[in-house]
Fold:
Amino acid sequence: MDDLPKSLFLSHGGGPLPLLNDPAHAGLVACLQQIARDLPRPEAIVLFSAHWEEPIATITAAVHPELIHDYYGFPPE
Structure:
């Protein structure tokens, strides 16, 4: 079992959660920062998104896939 790749499953929360500087998010932000330091650099990232719609299950390998923003009013960073 030690040969299995490390996996991390995250929901983005309400918008760019860690960037909002909400004091209530400080523990979560600290935990995510520690995880980023502890995990080895990934060879690949798989992302599942509800913000991309196609009539059938679809996979992209685009270098710069189109991003659909369906939420607004967050800081520019």
Observations:
- The mean pLDDT is 78.
- The radius of gyration is 15 Å.
